[in-house]
C-alpha cells in the first residue's frame, strides 16, 4: 500500500464518487481492503500485529486469515483499457 494521505471520508462523500458507485464503477472489495490496510497502520501504533488483525477481523466480520491475506499477500493490480477516445 502506498503511503498516501487520502481522506477517505471526504472521498466517499464526494458526489462524483457517489455517481461512480451508483453506476458500478467502484470495486467495493478493493475499497474495503484499502480501508482495512489504512486502519491496520493506525492500530499498529498502539497494538501488536496479532491484536490489530483480530480487531479488524471482528470489525469487518472476516476471519483472521482473510485479514492477514488482505494485509500481506502481494496482489497484482487490475488493469483495463477503456477506449475513451476512439
Please write out the topology.
Elements lengths: L7 H6 L1 H8 L5 H16 L5 H11 L4 H9 L14
Biggest pleated-sheet summary: none
- Structural class designation: mainly alpha
Shape: globular
- Tell me how many strands there are: 0
Q: Provide the helix percentage.
A: 55-70%
Low-pLDDT parts are: none
**Secondary structure tally, helices:** 5
Q: Rg to the nearest angstrom?
A: 15 Å
Overall pLDDT metric: 87
SSE order in H/E notation?
Answer: HHHHH
Give the termini distance in whole angstroms.
Answer: 33 Å
Portion in beta strands? under 5%
Can you put this structure into words, describing what you see?
This protein has 86 residues and is an all-alpha fold. It has a domain at 27-72. Helices cover 58% and strands 0% of the residues. It has 5 helices and no strands. It has helices at 8-13, 15-22, 28-43, 49-59, 64-72. The longest helix has 16 residues, at 28-43. The radius of gyration is 15 Å and the shape is globular. The N and C termini lie far apart (33 Å).
Amino acid at each position: 500500500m502506498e503511503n498516501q494521505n487520502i481522506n477517505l471520508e471526504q472521498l466517499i462523500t464526494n458526489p462524483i464518487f457517489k455517481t461512480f458507485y451508483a453506476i458500478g464503477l467502484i470495486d467495493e472489495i478493493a475499497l474495503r481492503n484499502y480501508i482495512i490496510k489504512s486502519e491496520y497502520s493506525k492500530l499498529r501504533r498502539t497494538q501488536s500485529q496479532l491484536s490489530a488483525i483480530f480487531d479488524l477481523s471482528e470489525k469487518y466480520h472476516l476471519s483472521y486469515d482473510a485479514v492477514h491475506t488482505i494485509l500481506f499477500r502481494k496482489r497484482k493490480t487490475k488493469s483495463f483499457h477503456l477506449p475513451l477516445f476512439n
